[in-house]
Amino acid sequence: MLTTVSFSYCDENVHRFAYHPKVPRAQLFTAVAMSSSVSKSYRNSKNAIIDYCTKLSIKPHSIQVQLAEKTLREAPMAVMLGAPEVLHLGQSLIRLIKAKKVLDIGTFTGASALAWSIAVPEDGRVLSVDISHENLNKFGLALIDSVTDLRKKIDFKLGKALEVLDALIDSGECQQWDFAFIDADKENYVNYYERCLQLLRPGGVILVDNALWNGKVTEEEMDEETQAIDALNRQVFNDERVDNVLMNLGDGVNLVFKK
To answer: Per the UniProt record, which residue ranges are transmembrane (predicted)?
Structure first.
């Protein structure tokens, strides 16, 4: 469960969305979670090394900065925003494997789908699935719609992700997709992983977010969400169909390569 979170915004400090040359520094904000009990995607870093790495790695599209700013300032559950370094890693992987068809499990305000639309080629497709479009409609859709060359690549699908994935499998889409990003309800992480693995081609990549869950996966006492994440991490490690790298990036990512 996410607890109430307070945010402070700093327009002059180094932001983990590294500065875009056309975006004034004053437009960039930092979200600071005031409750240590929150497990989250977007994490404010106090680590100078992490800040240095992200500052010299990420060159976001101006619309990404606008969407992040609006989400962090206005969305009640802004901590669900994907960490910029995780989205940047996903974009790099998409370009590396020349992905054209991307599955995005968990839409929120649309930041991850937007990131993938930037990375895929002109004829690329991003299918973003969520059980609710409330946050997308309130905070993200108008901004994304304003960039038509990116918006045309994205299909925002309203519905239960497992049902959507099962429908793709039933319609003959197995091994037709290139990349999948999983960032939705944690209890179904294993189920999402298994479906996405069927849908991905050999050489495809699955990027699982929140794989460390604010460090809770290392604790002896785990709640149901943490148990589900830990179970997936262990399943992936023992899965002969894949190779993986579990990384301490953002809130943890499990990078999975289908053989």
So the answer is: none
- CA quadruple 118, 185, 136, 32: dihedral positive or negative? negative
Is residue 135 situated within a structural domain? yes
Q: List the structure tokens of 166.
A: 């099962």
Alpha-carbon span 215 to 141, nearest angstrom: 32
Provide CB contacts within 8 A for 8, sequence distance 6+.
30, 32
- Specify if 122 maps to a domain: yes
Q: Which residues contact 18 (CB under 8 A, 6 or more apart)?
A: 54, 55, 56, 57, 58, 59, 60, 84
Q: Which has more pLDDT, 256 or 250?
A: 256
Contact yes or no for 207/106 (Cβ under 8 A)? no
Checking if the pLDDT of 14 tops 50, the result is no
Please tell me the predicted confidence (pLDDT) of residue 42.
55
Count of structural domains, the chain: 1
- Residue labelled with tokens 């991307």: 102
The residue segments making up the domain with residue 171 are 84-258
Task: Tell me if 157 is assigned to some domain.
Answer: yes
Residue 113 belongs to a domain with what CATH number?
A: 3.40.50.150
Phi, psi for 206 (deg, rounded to 5): -110, 130
pLDDT confidence band for 215 (50 / 70 / 90) = very high
Question: Would residue 26 count as lying in a domain?
Answer: no
The confidence score (pLDDT) of residue 54 equals 86
The C-alpha angle 69, 70, 73, rounded to 5 degrees, equals 85
Higher pLDDT, residue 76 or 156: 156
Residue 30 CA to residue 72 CA, distance in Å, equals 8
